[in-house]
Design brief:
Helix content is 16%, strand content 34%. The chain is an alpha+beta fold and 147 residues long.
């Protein structure tokens, strides 16, 4: 399934769910996961992360003001794939959840600034959930928006 909106596009395999939305006055946010995503979730998955299973993957991609990216805070361009087991950081999680690992990356693409947040279940190790995440994130396409 191809998910598309607000100049963001990603391909989701069978068994994945996703949405791209924008809150009033806000910028686009993408959620994707290989489990049933809860409705009415926070921008960084505060409802999704606790219901993840042993090797689940949750992706949140949030767009930021491009002026922030222009100040060098969101380098390098692109999400920096592949994501490796050593890239996990406990501080990346909105709040600690047992058997979950988080990754945060900030990047620019097409003159747009993004924060990528990835949470993976670690019950069976990191390799398989990160393989799934890298496969899906490898299909991410950002389009330049015109005024």
């Amino acid at each position: 399934m191809r998910l598309r909106g607000y100049g963001i596009e990603i391909d989701l395999p069978d068994g994945w769910e996703g949405r791209i939305y924008r809150r009033p006055g806000g910028r686009p946010i993408l959620h994707a996961g290989n489990f049933a995503l809860p409705g009415g979730d926070g921008d960084f998955g505060t409802k999704a992360i606790p219901v993840m299973q042993g090797d689940s993957v949750f992706v949140a991609l949030a767009e930021y003001d491009p002026a922030v990216g222009g100040r060098g805070l969101f380098l390098p361009p692109g999400p920096g794939l592949p994501i490796l087991p050593g890239d996990t950081n406990p501080k990346a999680m909105p709040r600690p959840v047992r058997r979950r690992a988080g990754i945060q990356r900030f990047f620019t693409d097409q003159a747009r600034a993004f924060g990528l947040f990835l949470a993976v279940g670690t019950e069976f190790g990191l390799e398989e959930p990160l393989r799934k995440a890298n496969e899906v994130l490898g299909t991410l396409r950002i389009k330049r928006l015109t005024a």
